[in-house]
Structure formats: structure tokens, C-alpha cells
Amino acid sequence: MKLIRTFGRSRQSAAELIATLEVRGGAALDTVMPAVSRIVSSVRNQGDRALLRYGREFDGLPGAESLRVTREEMAEAWERIEPALRTALSTAAEQIRSFAEKQMPQSWTETSADGLTRGQVVRPIGAVGCYVPSGRHPLPSTLLMTAIPAQVAGVPRVVAISPRPAVEALAAAHLLGISEFYRIGGAHGIAALAYGTASIPRVEKIVGPGNLYVTAAKRTVAFDCAIDMLAGPTEIVVTSEKGRPAEIASDLVAQAEHDPEALAIFITSREELARTVMTEVKDRARSNPVAKESLQRNGVVLLTATPAEARDLTNRIAPEHLTVDSFADLSWVQSAGSVFVGRWSAQPMGDYISGPNHTLPTGGMARVRGGLSVNDFVKLITVQEYTSASMRELGPEAFLLARAEGLVGHAEAILVRLSKPRKSRSSNG
């Protein structure tokens, strides 16, 4: 990690670095977009023929008969894993489910004195595809984090895809009762979910993190199929004035080991703490090659003039994961995916078992949204019903607004309800 002071001689270089961090994001996607566009287009136009061709090339898929994982294979995977891991997966699932249930929005209506009834009804999305990476590490936790909120929301069809799915991911699918699981991934898997093929019916939304090709594919299909967010490399910021160096360093190393491109930042106004954390990080990353590479590339300690400046920089960076010293610090946190409070709240606890989702906004997107939640899987449909009394109360003002906008049809649709009905003339023939 490198130490950069935000004051004194290094003020300008610090300002340039922070400005770069504020606009980090999807630039790397541009390098793979031509290849991804070709793959997505092929699957969209050729269906299974292209999907299976890419599956053989990139995922080692033997043939069409092995594309879909059977329920028996998922049940067998559940039996193959250690009993202790089955218990851990079950505990994590319970924690995630209980948190999602508390997040679930409610239907409601209210009626005013003049008779206007308004409210909302909550309805689930019809079909969701959950992407489960299977690169460096098996990630059953990602399946739990993406599928459980969808189930809590009442999504009737939850589909999982993963290239070369690990036994742990298949076991997690069995635990959740998932019936559709496909051995496919990459940009071609995203395209299949978005547009559908003979083997994989299309879904209405795609969620879950993936590599650069997966993220670029999600961006490509986003106008045709909803997505959760464009997830980049993992990010961690620890902003602390009194944390323990070993604990701060261990969290920085833990998130850095996800990816050589991961971003790890420590922000403090205490120079002694900054230097001690840097020493701890170096020692702890020595035998962790991925974390070591990541920290050498992207590890930064920002030494600020004051604690207030440290807090301001934290919000400007808008990190995916943020650790702070105490609950009182939440008063200044404005932009972060998920916040970990105090020395006992190791960030990996949030990756697995706390309950809040670990699919979180990266690249500064925490300025405008939080992590994946049950809210990503429902539609809030608003409802309104007028009585004649409420129309007489509010209609004239709506009429004036419509007329001011020059929308004659709007105004007349209101006026016809405010006017007394004309009596029809009788005729003697």
C-alpha cells in the first residue's frame, strides 16, 4: 500500500487520485464490449446452437444433455458436503431470509375525508435469473444472497446459472429448493437469460456479480431485460481514528484477495495508526498472492489533516464496503453499500452470514443505490379511486394544471366528470 497525504506537498497528487477514484467505474468494460456484443448477438439470433457452442468453448460443457442440472444432482451435492457446512449454509440462509422478510415492502391504502382512496399493491417480478460465479473460488453464498430475496418477494420462477458449478453451489441450490440450474455462464449465459433459447426460457431480470465479460453482457442486454447493477471489482474503505491495526489490516487483506483489481483504502488523520496498518497489511498479505498483487496495485492509505476531512473523502469515494469506529459515525455516512460498525464487525461476516446482502454497488454507484434487496424483486403498483366528492374537491385544480400544460384531452377528461350530465331529449318518432 502507498501512503498519500491530502495536505502539504502531496496535496495536489492526493486531489488527482481522489478525483480519479470518484469517477472509477465501467471504463474497463469498453475493452471487451466488441467481443461481448458478438456473443450476445449470436445467442439472441441463433439460440441454443450458439449457446451450446460457446458452452463447449468456454465452460467445457460436454453437450446439450448436461446443460441443465437435475434435482438428483443437487440433492447428491447436498449429501456430499460436510455436515458442518450444511449447518453453516442453513444458518446463513436463515439469516438472509429473516433480513429480507423485514425489508419486504407492504401493500396499503388510505382514504381521505372527501373520499379519495390511494395506496400501493406489491407484486413480484415473474422470473429472475441468478448468476453464480465459479472462477477462483466456489461462491454458494452468492446463490443464497441472490435467490433468497427473490423467494421472499414471491418470484414464481428463480433460475440459477453457473459455469462449471461447484458442489457447494449445487448443494445451496438444493437447500433453497431451486429447480432450474444450468451449467452455463459468461456473456452467452447472460444472453440466454435475457432473450431465451429452446433450452432456457427468458427471465425478466438478471442479478448477481460476474467477471468483466458478464458485466459487459449485462450492460448490453439492459434495455431488453432488467438487471440489478453493473458490479465491478470488490471495494473496501476503512475510515478509523481508533481502530486496532491488526483488525483493520485483516479486513483490507480479506477484501483484496477477491481480485487483483480490488480496491482497498484506509483513511485516517492519525499518521502513527496509518503506518502501523501498512506494516500489518504487508505482513498479512505476504502469503496471499492475490491480495498482495491487489494491494500493490490499488492499496492506498489516505492520511488527512482532520477527521472531518476523512469523513468527507469517504463519502466522495462512496465505497462498496465501509468500516467505521462506532454507531455514532453513521450520522455522517451518506454513501456506502454496506457499513460495518466497530472492531468486532469483520467485513467477511457480511459476505456470508449477517443477513444484509453482499451484492453491493461498486464504482461509486453507492451514491445512488444500496445493495441488492427484496425491493429489487417486486413492483410497487400505485392505486387511486375517486368518489364524486373527491373529484369535485380536487378535479378543478387538476383541470387548471392540464390546461396550463396545453393538454386539452386531459382537461376534458376531468371536466366531463365535473359537469352535470345533460338530459336526453325524448322523441315522439
TrEMBL record:
CDD domains, alphabetically?
A: Histidinol_dh
Gene Ontology terms: biological process: L-histidine biosynthetic process
Q: Which GO molecular function terms does the record list?
A: histidinol dehydrogenase activity; NAD binding; zinc ion binding
Report the active site residues.
Answer: 320-321
Q: Which residues form a coiled coil?
A: none
Q: Where does Zn(2+) bind?
A: 255, 258, 351, 410
The organism's place on the tree of life at top rank? Bacteria
Q: Where along the chain is substrate bound?
A: 234, 255, 258, 321, 351, 405, 410
Pathway per its UniProt entry is: Amino-acid biosynthesis; L-histidine biosynthesis; L-histidine from 5-phospho-alpha-D-ribose 1-diphosphate: step 9/9
- Catalysed reactions listed for this entry: L-histidinol + 2 NAD(+) + H2O = L-histidine + 2 NADH + 3 H(+)
User: Which cellular component terms (GO) are annotated to the entry?
Assistant: cytoplasm
Q: Which InterPro entries match?
A: Ald_DH/histidinol_DH (IPR016161), Histidinol_DH_monofunct (IPR022695), Hstdl_DH (IPR012131)
Q: Which co-factor is required?
A: Zn(2+)
EC number from the UniProt entry: 1.1.1.23
- Specify the enzyme's EC class, one word: oxidoreductase
The note on cofactor binding and number reads: Binds 1 zinc ion per subunit.
Q: Which keywords does UniProt give here?
A: Amino-acid biosynthesis, Histidine biosynthesis, Metal-binding, NAD, Oxidoreductase, Zinc
Name the job this protein performs.
Catalyzes the sequential NAD-dependent oxidations of L-histidinol to L-histidinaldehyde and then to L-histidine.
> NCBIfam families, alphabetically?
hisD
State the family it belongs to.
Belongs to the histidinol dehydrogenase family.
Name of the featured protein: Histidinol dehydrogenase
What's the source species for this entry? Occallatibacter riparius
Q: Which gene encodes it?
A: hisD
